[in-house]
Amino acid sequence: MRYLAFASDYDGTLADEGAVSPSTFAALKRLKASGRKLILVTGRELDELLQTFPAHWVFERIVTDNGAVVYSPANGRTVTLADPPPQKFIDALRQKNVEPLGIGRVIVATVESHRAAVHSAIRELGLPLQVAYNKGSVMVLPAGTDKTTGLLAALSDLGLSERQTVGVGDAENDEQLLKLCACGAAVANATPGLKECADIIMTESGGKGVQELIDRLLLNDLSDIEVQRQSSERFR
Q1: Residues 53, 30, 164, 181: is their CA dihedral positive or negative?
Q2: Average pLDDT, whole number, for the chain?
Q3: What are the domain boundaries of the chain?
Q4: DSSP state of 96
Q5: pLDDT for 34-47, tens place per residue?
Q6: Given the DSSP bridges, would you call strands 183-186 and 200-201 parallel, antiparallel or unpaired?
Q7: What is the distance between the alpha carbons of residues 53 and 42, in angstroms, rounded to a whole number?
Q8: What CATH number belongs to 87-142?
Q9: What pLDDT sits at residue 236?
Q10: Are strands 5-8 and 165-169 parallel, antiparallel or unpaired?
């Protein structure tokens, strides 16, 4: 096998309206049974994700906080890869009436209507923070931290590399993830920008798109995608 790892986003990709369907979960179990390592990479906070998705044990590693936290379901080990949000930043957002306001181990999240307030707070405090977007969500993280940060840490922990990984997502914050992986896939409901980054675009949306990708991966290790990519590069 060329592709030994499978990295998937959660909301809008693996999960539809926050839930993973039985058929999508069955596809994940088939993929796991093939000997490949499954890695979940999400912008959600860890505690929220574990409550939302009780069957998270199917994954070898779970990357949360948009790349800043790596969790191992088998033993409960949690590694935080960046500093927690400064209290003065959280206080500033509350003073600006930013609600909802989600605070994880590293990530601070709200909705896009508060985009200007978030940027204003970062500028006023002179903090080394960056902002990422996910279909209406606004996420704030330490500069240089994104989904690739956590995925690379998870892969290293498993003795694998991005050259052995298939990644799949649906939104803006998945762009770096797909660019990092040897093969990047976008589900049918992905943003136009993500589809431009993808090596393959699924015909189905959300969880059904993930099932479609897993079926193709199990069929021929995506060898047809590699042939198409090499042909495309040859005629550039």
Answers
A1: negative
A2: 94
A3: 5-81+145-234, 87-142
A4: T
A5: 999 999 999 999 99
A6: parallel
A7: 12
A8: 3.90.1070
A9: 36
A10: parallel
